[in-house]
Design goal:
Layout lengths: L2 E5 L2 E4 L4 E8 L7 E7 L6 E6 L6 E3 L7 E6 L4 E6 L8 E8 L12 E2 L3 E6 L1
């Protein structure tokens, strides 16, 4: 079955960086759009970034543009989220998601999800 496993979360000071990884199995990775979402306590899950099947196209939430970069390595079945200049408001559980559709920003458009990794940004 399809499995998505995130890693790389942790505690970082404001202004710092983290790189999240999401390793996929059970699917033909290159045929899937991959996305990152996040959910803070008491808030809805929100779109962060997405990357097309071949990696040529990316899309970002306005709140992370210029700070976060999504990339993928189709030879390793892994998608990454490089997060720079982190802010306390970036604190959330980060999820990766996969679907065969084109790049989309709604959680409802993604069929497969990882278990999430916690990112905490301190002041």
């Amino acid at each position: 079955q399809v499995q998505l496993v995130e890693s790389g979360g942790g505690l970082v000071q404001a202004g710092g960086s983290l790189r999240l990884s999401c390793a996929a199995s059970g699917l033909t990775f290159s045929k899937y759009t991959l996305a990152w979402f996040r959910q803070a306590p008491g808030k809805d899950r929100e779109f962060v970034a997405a990357i097309s099947r071949g990696g040529a196209s990316t899309r970002y939430a306005d709140s992370v543009k210029g700070r976060f970069t999504a990339s993928r390595d189709n030879t390793k079945n892994t998608v990454y989220l490089q997060m720079n200049s982190l802010k306390p408001e970036d604190t959330a559980v980060y999820y990766c998601a996969a679907d065969t559709s084109y790049v989309r920003t709604s959680p409802q458009d993604y069929n497969y999800w990882g278990q999430g990794t916690q990112v905490t940004v301190s002041t």
